[in-house]
């Protein structure tokens, strides 16, 4: 009966039909949008977890490479501004000036953390000189041979 009245192009049935089709299309679009949004949210959550795991692994590598088991990046970021500026300039005399101007305990605390994280290597110039001396001795021994 429906198709017969539809064929006859009864305006009431035609309107009912187009309304039902439009409602069905709206339900389909709404459901597709919900599914797409849910899939996108799940993907973003997985990406966040993967990024956090990667950052954690990088941090663990930095800590493992540090002699005292402290994260060099965290130690650097926790330094007072003037001490950080002295490290940035890589000027020992500037660091000594900061040591004189700061409270001794505060400077000692931060400086020890720098040593433990590997930001500062005590007697690094002496070690470099020893390595250079060993290299020169090795080169001289090779020349004598």
TrEMBL record:
GO MF annotation list: heat shock protein binding; protein-folding chaperone binding; unfolded protein binding
Entry's Gene Ontology BP terms: protein folding; protein stabilization
Name used for this protein in its record: Cdc37 protein
Coiled-coil portions: none
Any one GO cellular component localisation term in the record: cytoplasm
Organism whose genome encodes this protein: Oesophagostomum dentatum
Chain positions covered by the region annotation Disordered: 125-145
Database matches in SMART domains: CDC37_C
